Amino acid sequence: MEKTLPFTGSGVAIITPFDGDKTNFDELGRIIDDQIAAGTDAIIICGTTGEASTMPDSEHLDVIKYAVKTAGGRVPVIAGTGSNDTAHAVMLSKKAEELGADGLLQVTPYYNKTSQRGLAAHFKAVAEAVSIPIILYNVPSRTGINISIPTLKELAEVENIVGIKEASGNLSYTVQVAAEVPELYIYSGNDDIIVPVLSIGGKGVISVLANVCPKETHEMCDAYLRGDTERARELQLKYTDLIGALFSDVNPIPVKTAMNLIGYNAGNLRMPLCNMSEEGLKTLKAALQNVGFEIKD
């Protein structure tokens, strides 16, 4: 069966700007508008980069609602509604669908983890509760669990489980997914291998880099998908150092710092996340300047 394609190209794993202990909705609106104007193909709200793990449910849902309203149908909005508690993931997912989200990002359960049988049951429970497309999120460095190929094959039989954000960093595994589970659309979850993932049939990226470089990340994907592989390669290599700097500390510490440095009011990080070291900050500033940014101190 042919599945619904949530988006093609560059989806930004968007930051959530804070003002003290509250979401700065005005600045979030400005960032969303700027992203869309720069060519970003989808907004991924309340993911890892959006610090959803420190949001109470009311704030989490308010942020999704605001993103849907602000995007206004110009691009799809994919809402992060994953949890290590299946009932909680189901509740958030149903609410996000009611709020108008175009799709959902579902991370593998963390901390308590589960077996592969449990993973399949968890994702199926969420899928059965909603009708919108679901992108699985495989990020074992954060969750301690990897979705096996047999489990992906089983989940691919569910009509509204349509894709995977593959953030293991293991290109061999990603190739295996492409070869053995062709029913699932693949999005790179790692900015350093966007072009390699596109080269094996990936549909795009769910990107941290796109917060800072939305136009360039969109162009990288668009160029490859149009057949201009040389331009895509050029952009991938040009931004290698900046991508490294954006992941030199725990995400989203560097990218939120970078957004503040280039003129956005991204605000603070929520503990336990903390500010970058002076050495890390120096490296980040240099990487931004090397690709043409002026630093706002």
UniProtKB/TrEMBL annotation:
Q: What does this protein do?
A: Catalyzes the condensation of (S)-aspartate-beta-semialdehyde [(S)-ASA] and pyruvate to 4-hydroxy-tetrahydrodipicolinate (HTPA).
Q: Which UniProt keywords apply?
A: Amino-acid biosynthesis, Cytoplasm, Diaminopimelate biosynthesis, Lyase, Lysine biosynthesis, Schiff base
What PANTHER family does this protein map onto? Answer: 4-HYDROXY-2-OXOGLUTARATE ALDOLASE, MITOCHONDRIAL (PTHR12128:SF66), DIHYDRODIPICOLINATE SYNTHASE (PTHR12128)
Q: Where is this site: Part of a proton relay during catalysis?
A: 48, 111
Q: Report the top EC class in one word.
A: lyase
Q: Which organism is it from?
A: Candidatus Monoglobus merdigallinarum
Annotated GO biological processes are: diaminopimelate biosynthetic process; lysine biosynthetic process via diaminopimelate
* Pfam families the record matches: DHDPS
Tell me which Gene3D superfamilies the record gives: Aldolase class I
Lineage runs: Bacteria, Bacillati, Bacillota, Clostridia, Monoglobales
Subunit arrangement?
Homotetramer; dimer of dimers.
Q: Which HAMAP family does the entry mention? A: DapA
Annotated compartments: Cytoplasm
Q: Which residues bind pyruvate?
A: 49, 206
Name the active site residues.
137, 165
Q: In which pathway does it act?
A: Amino-acid biosynthesis; L-lysine biosynthesis via DAP pathway; (S)-tetrahydrodipicolinate from L-aspartate: step 3/4
What reactions does this protein catalyze?
A: L-aspartate 4-semialdehyde + pyruvate = (2S,4S)-4-hydroxy-2,3,4,5-tetrahydrodipicolinate + H2O + H(+)
Q: Which GO terms describe its molecular function?
A: 4-hydroxy-tetrahydrodipicolinate synthase activity
Q: What is its EC number?
A: 4.3.3.7
Q: Where are the transmembrane segments?
A: none
Recorded protein name is 4-hydroxy-tetrahydrodipicolinate synthase
Q: What is its main location?
A: cytoplasm
GO CC field: cytosol
